[in-house]
Amino acid sequence: MGALGQFFQAIPFDLIIIQTVNGIVTGMILALIASGLTLIFGIMDVVNFAHGELFMLGAYIGFVVFVTTGSFWLALIGASLIVAILGAAMQIVALRPLIGRDPLNTILATFGISLVLQNYALWQFGPVVRKIPEPIGSHFTLFYLQYPWYRVLIAVLSAAIIGGFWLFLKYGKLGVWIRATAQDRVMAQAMGIPVPWVYTGVFAIGAAMAAASGVLFAPMVGVNHTMGLDWVLKAFIVVVVGGMGNFGGSIAAAIFISLLEAYATIWVDPSQAVIVSFVVLILTLLFRPTGLFAR
Amino acid sequence: MTTERRDKVTTLKDLPLGTRRLSHNAVFWIGFCVVMALLIAAPLVLPEFWRRFLTEILIWGLLAMSSDLLIGYTGMVSFGHSAFFGLGMYGAAGALLIVSPPNLWLAILCGLAGAAGAALFVAFFSTRLRDIYFAITTLIFSQIFYVIIFTWTAVTGGENGLIFTRPHLTIPFLYNARFTSTTLHWFVLAAVAGSYLFLRRVTQSPFGTVLQSIRENEARTRAVGYAVERYKMMSVMLSGLFAGLAGVLYAVQNEFAAPDFVYFLTSGDTVIYNVLGGIGTLVGPIVGAGFFQLARQLLSQWFGDQFPYLIPLGIVFIAMIIFLPQGILGFARRWLNR
């Protein structure tokens, strides 16, 4: 009994609760990125290597809009719209000619796009970290911390965007088109659905989601040109762990992995905590290669 | 049968000299010797900077060539070659720092052992995957090695990396002298040319043919009765070993090992070299590395160091994938592999 009591005392409960909140917040941002990635993969068989760069560019455009207009909400909407247009252009110029070719070609092409976008951001904005201030400054007390309400708002907003998108897929006209294309491309085409434009639309929506998460994330850490790779790696892990093309699975996986990483940072350095998610990935590949949350 | 063949030989001999066609093999070896002669002579005429530059291109070419075995012949795109390259670098660095006097051959051995270890790890976990899954997992594995090397400061020197002095070029009982930039170039050239001939032999062997059949149709290869996973593992291991050799050579040339080279950008560059030069040709990636490095050098000479050379090169890369997926040497692919 004494040993057990000591064991329970050794667990820092306050830290665990704080990290649970942190994990859910980053998990929701990650879910927003990963659901765009998994959507694009599920419908077009395209692994979008440039997804992290869309996230990064969204954050930068948000920063520019914020500086010129002074409104965070305008920045959020403006960045999403601009990046959506950019995503559509990317799809038309670089990915449409590759339809019907080996999916590996698309990963190479989007990798090329990510190089161009990343170096453009570095060239345009320099290696300095930019920051968007939090739109609401109030805090609430969580144990000994003054926890910003903004982070809770991020989680709620991300959930709202994902939920809204889910409703759109379920009931919207374009949403039905998207689901039909995902089920059977040829049949959808035969029914008169303009499949190439559905692809473009899906890419634009995925890009907008990445950009929105970039703007939401920007006040937390700041914007720099290399943030894309970190996040696209995490999103890849999430998408594989959740099951490629599985929308719900990737959301569950995003929160699961972010929670694990958050707990790991209680004991190890944050830069080493990512190894936890790598291990989850390896175990998933070994034992459930179709995804941890596959139906 | 025999008479037929003799007939053919005599008719060839009877042809006038100008129209006589050289056999494919003869043309290949003549071409090989000409290129080798040019590369051997190059350091004697080039100024110091370009001599170093050429040596570096050969090393990047070796790295790209090693990944071509996976991309071009087995049909698996690796986004994680920086791990093998980096482990080769750190293996060599470890051997050079611990053993005194530093020994070149021991460094090569240790570098190869490091790369082989990494390759075994990657091969074991990722060869059961295909296509994009393989690409993503190799990328993530290389990041694992990067994080370990970057954070394990006590052993790897962390962000600063390891600095050491270049070993002597020794051939036991025969030769022992400091590397000059010329002998270093010849040493690297010998390693790259030897690797090329070895890999070419591998791709033409029955083993290499199985790899190519996996690329063409994995399910059918398995149905015919080949243990596909074993072949894939061998392919990853071989590729990793040669990438490790490139890492050792790079470490010896630059006298340091740094975590930057284990980072994803190195793997990305490797893939670019392959696509630019032409996958499935082995020499193509070397040409691609040369083209990329030269373009980068010239762009930064013309427009200054701050010029984002990856923007034009990235656009060229995307255009190549769309319009010329075979790469610069794609037209010669069939011929080179015959």
Explain how this protein is built.
With 295 residues, chain A is mainly alpha-helical. Chain A has a single domain, classed as ABC transporter involved in vitamin B12 uptake, BtuC (Orthogonal Bundle), CATH 1.10.3470. In chain A, 78% of the residues lie in helices and 3% in strands. Chain A contains twelve helices and two strands; from the N terminus they run H-H-H-H-H-E-E-H-H-H-H-H-H-H. Chain A has helices spanning 2-10, 13-44, 51-69, 72-95, 103-125, 149-171, 173-183, 185-190, 195-221, 227-242, 247-267, 270-287; strands spanning 139-142, 145-148. A two-stranded antiparallel ribbon of chain A has the order 1-2. In chain A, strand 1 (139-142) and strand 2 form a beta hairpin. The longest helix of chain A is centred in the first third of the chain and has 32 residues, at 13-44. Chain A is globular. The mean pLDDT of chain A is 85. By secondary structure, chain B is an all-alpha fold. Helices cover 74% and strands 3% of the residues of chain B. Chain B has helices spanning 2-14, 24-45, 48-74, 81-98, 104-126, 131-151, 153-156, 181-204, 206-216, 218-224, 228-254, 264-277, 283-303, 310-323, 333-336; strands at 162-163, 169-171, 175-177, 256-257. In chain B, the strands form two sheets. Chain B has a two-stranded antiparallel ribbon. In chain B, a hairpin with a 3-residue loop joins strand 2 (169-171) and strand 3. Mean pLDDT of chain B is 85; it is low at 1-12. The chains are: A mainly alpha (295), B mainly alpha (338). Chains A and B meet through helix 5, helix 10 and helix 12 of A and helix 6, helix 12 and helix 14 of B.
